[in-house]
Amino acid sequence: TKSVLEHIKKVSEKGIKLLAILLDPDKTTIKEIPAISKRIEKLKADFIFVGGSLIENGITDLFVKSLKQHTKIPIVLFPGDYTQVTNNADALLFLSLLSGRNPEYLIEQQIKSVPFLKNSTLEIIPTGYILIDGGTNSSVLKVSKTTAISQNDIQLAVDTAVAGMYKGKQLIYLEAGSGAKTVVNEKLISEVKKNISIPLIVGGGIKTKEQLKAAYNNGADLVVIGTAFENNIDL
Ligand code: 1GP
Questions:
Q1: Which residues make up the binding site for Mg(2+) (predicted)?
Q2: Is the pTM of this model over 0.90?
Q3: Residue 235: inside a domain, yes or no?
Q4: Cα separation of 149 and 129, whole Å?
Q5: The predicted structure's pLDDT at residue 64
Q6: Number of domains within the chain
Q7: How many CA atoms lie within 13 A of 71 on its CB side?
Q8: 175 appears as a binding residue in the annotation
């Protein structure tokens, strides 16, 4: 299998934009997977992200196994905690919640995941995860007990992303939170993009074609859509 990170890097260097559909095993049942896989294939999504903040232990593994039977689109884990790591996916976003100051999500969870990763064939992708205020108390804020960076604090968002890059992250993910009222603003996306030389992921609350285009035009290499897909909104 080809490397997910290499693919993102190569494609983004050419200015080609990527799409990931986010499935949360807490919100989607295994029964729905055949139909959902068809919808994702139709959209020609580049990746399926699987993860969430509140998934019961063991569910992700079954969920990914079933997805694998229905689609060849690479599956990338986007875990809310270490229990969501399963060897059946293709890659893992090894997240550090850089906008937060909770050691649990900066290093503890990462340490706890090591026994699961030792013999795994998952491609591990160091990812700087940065929460931007999306106007809702999103589950990721609640679970991580952290605060998001204000949409107006562009300098802090930029410096956080650049620090992440210097720390060796291979991707930066700007997150407004699932179901966000306010998407990450254009200026913030473009300033972050201007200051990093690694690919940029943007997600949270995107539900119109305009928002999707704005994210891409301002520098997102990969956009993640979860809620709008769940709600069958045609982008
Ligand atoms: C959440 O960025 C993703 O982690 C996607 O958010 O569910 O609002 O599309 P939505």
A1: 24, 53
A2: yes
A3: no
A4: 12
A5: 97
A6: 1
A7: 27
A8: yes
Confidence of residue 1 (pLDDT cuts 50, 70, 90): low
Q: Is the pLDDT of residue 158 over 90?
A: yes
Structural domain boundaries, residue 71: 4-230
Structure tokens at 141: 């804020």
Residue 19 falls inside a structural domain: yes
24 assigned binding-site residue: yes
Q: Is 175 in the pocket of ligand 1 (CB under 6 A)?
A: yes
Residue 104 lies in a domain: yes
**Within a domain: 188:** yes
Q: Which atom of ligand 1 is nearest to the CA of 227?
A: 7
The ligand 1 atom nearest the CA atom of 176: 2
Question: Is 219 labelled as part of a ligand binding site?
Answer: no
**Cβ–ligand 1 contact at 202 (below 6 Å):** no
Strand partners, 125: 93
The per-residue pLDDT of the chain, averaged, comes to: 96
Q: What is the CATH number of the domain that holds 148?
A: 3.20.20.390
Q: Residue 15 burial (CB < 10 Å; 0-12/13-18/19+)?
A: exposed
Atom of ligand 1 nearest to the CA of 140: 4
> What distance in angstroms lies between residue 151's CA and the mean position of ligand 1's atoms?
17
Q: What is the pLDDT of residue 2?
A: 75
Residue 183: alpha-carbon gap to chain centroid: 14
Task: Answer yes or no: are the C-beta atoms of 76 and 90 closer than 8 Å.
Answer: yes
